[in-house]
Fold these 2 entries.
Entry 1:
Amino acid sequence: MSNEYRKTAIVTGASRGIGAAISERLATEGFTVLINFAANASAAEAQVRKIESAGGRAITAQADVSDPAAVARMFDAAEAAYGGVDVLVNNAGIMKLATIADSDDALFDSQVAINLKGTFNTLRQAARRLRDGGRIINLSSSVVGLYQPTYAVYAATKAGVEALTHVLTKELRGRNITVNTVAPGPTATDLFLNGKPEEVVDRLAKLAPLERLGQPADIAAAVAFLASPDGDWINGQTLRANGGII
């Protein structure tokens, strides 16, 4: 990179799926990447080795994003190791599906804790501590807009993430920090494909006019654009990376 120091990016939920693809892409763009994970240390360490074998730099950073103290410690570790944080990618999230009538308290509370409060926790630290000129990229979902049955609680948490994005954009006025959201559609991750019959996967793949599922690399490319100098003038936006499904 052209900067005098190597920029640092925290990617939450980065040990697998879309988060792993984002961490790999940012590493190829020259960022030192903190691979955040909640519990699966071995997967996070494997991701670090993969990045390092390709010539990049990465370290692991354990933190349950729903725990404010753990998130603060993660930022502390980044500052101690690298002097600060330049990019935050809020990818960590869970999805549990049920109709509103059938959703129990645990389904509601767990998704709010991780998807919404977890994003709030990292945004609060980033608002205080991100270096000027930085980037914040939140992950929403194209279910905000599609609003399918059984997705109510998940969609509500992601709609909340989009609201946080818009407000934080304005609160960071004067610091040259952009805040945007990427909203994937159906994406071929293990988490998405697990348990779905082939005919269901095929039907979902055909929904978008481009007639395929998204790949983690497609989402990583959108995030990398927003994190790059080419994304300087994009601020307060939700980019639906979904092949035109909505």
Entry 2:
Amino acid sequence: MTLKIRYSSFDFECGTDEAGRGCLAGPVTAAAVILPITFKNKILTDSKQLSEKKRYLLRPVIENESISAAFQHIFEDEIDSINILNASIKAMHGSISQLETTPEFIIVDGNRFKSYEDIPYKTIIKGDSKYLSIAAASVLAKTYRDDYMEKIHEEYPMYNWKQNKGYPTKEHRAAIKKYGVTKYHRKTFRLLPEQYQLDI
């Protein structure tokens, strides 16, 4: 399926997406990208469909060829304070606010968003596999979040965040059970199926 360059008729249409919403540790990260109408790329699609190698190859292409691109982390304390949905939207707003060009229209992956600066927007389910700018945002959000998880892996290697990136794998949950929680874990998330055994 060929991804489309535009949903609206505006020149400066921004796509936004997040990564790490379902993780037990680390930030939720969003990115926003405005692509030129002439942008073409045969590899770019939803980051979940791409290998890690392809995502990292695409990142400089997206950043060099976009009109503007930015990303934002929202960290675990704030996720616990305002909940993951609000944190995801706040990360999207934050990334949009850092764009050097103000978007005229925003397309959002998923079905939940809050208006940003009264700019018209459209939520699109599976938008990252339909529109190039959302796919580009998904690649930036995923790779910048992965970079962060690899960095904090050095501090707490027993959780193997370098590999699982904070997602609820069996290995990650076994490490939580054995070593307890860190400052990077989201305390409001169900960290273990038998939560009552975990002393937070």
